[in-house]
Amino acid sequence: MTKIIDGTEVAAAIREDLSAGIDTLAEAGEHPTLATVLMSDDPASETYVSMKQDDCEEVGIEAIDIEIDPEASASELYGTIDELNADESVDGVLVQMPVPDHVDKRAVLRRIDPAKDVDGFHPENVGRLVAGDARFKPCTPHGIQKLLAHVGVETAGAEAVIVGRSEIVGKPMANLLIQRSPDGNATTTVCHSQTADLAAKTRRADILIAAAGVPELIDGSMLRSGAVVIDVGINRVDANNEKGYELVGDVEFETATEKASAITPVPGGVGPMTRAMLLYNTVKATSQERGVAVELP
Ligand code: NAD
């Protein structure tokens, strides 16, 4: 029997623990505040931001919602970031990606105060993570570490194979799994679009993390028997239903469950964890900046 890893349930437990931390902060007169900045009229980005706002409200984090006209200049966005950096009542600053083409994404990430960079994408925070001294772990790989711990997967000595090398999932995931730490110590392979014979690499995996953004790229024949499969992919594919589409992962669920010992579903696996870990980083930022110790889940 393959265990279905319920990310919704694990995320709910994390949110509950964070609420206790938020109470501790409130007792010390501190109220975590996250500012989200949206410079896009893409409906998916709008949805992501509104979900983040709702998540904050649910646990008692104040959420500031800033929208900038996608036609506005890059300097308008920089000015907004500068103001949020300087605003002592703001603990976390998140600019929803992607930004319009005329805005330099890397310049945006560099502009955010690293102490408020709750996405963990500022080069200083990336460097600290690589050096084994993470301030903020990026939300998706951090959430995956929590899921692996929840299922009791021993990462030490395991063969971990990651499919995808993005800055937000693949690379930080690899950097976390190779750390000399209780939730690291894995022998880690990173595959990408130029990898030769992908199946030969994925079949080595005790822990397979699929983050390629290619619908059902990995099927059961590409898995080792007993592998733990974490499916990060969220792909819209045409479907004969009311919406006209359905969401599928990067893993072919049906054939994968014939081999895997545990697997995350799509939706309801990694996605809720990513959202919960943003709240975690916001509480952590508040605790660090205000000097109030909080027990984090
Ligand atoms: P990305 O497009 O930035 O990167 C995809 C990576 O996959 C690239 O490094 C590429 O080299 C690799 N790749 C592409 N095709 C491949 C192939 N055929 N074989 C091997 N490697 C291949 O994507 P991303 O931002 O990391 O997101 C990946 C997927 O995860 C997307 O479906 C995205 O929607 C989803 N995602 C989900 C969450 C979540 O919370 N569940 C968070 C972030 C991203």
Summarize the structure in words.
- By secondary structure, the chain is an alpha/beta fold.
- The chain has two domains: 28-115, Rossmann fold (3-Layer(aba) Sandwich), CATH 3.40.50.10860; 139-272, NAD(P)-binding Rossmann-like Domain (Rossmann fold), CATH 3.40.50.720.
- Helix content is 39%, strand content 15%.
- It has helices spanning 7-27, 43-59, 74-86, 105-111, 123-130, 139-151, 170-177, 198-202, 253-256, 270-290; strands at residues 3-4, 33-38, 62-67, 92-95, 159-163, 187-191, 207-210, 228-231, 235-238, 245-248, 262-263.
- 44% of the residues are buried.
- The model has no long low-confidence stretch (mean pLDDT 97).
- The structure holds nicotinamide-adenine-dinucleotide (NAD).
- Residues 140, 163-166, 168-170, 191-193, 195, 198, 211-214, 217, 232-235, 270-271, 274 line the site of nicotinamide-adenine-dinucleotide (NAD).
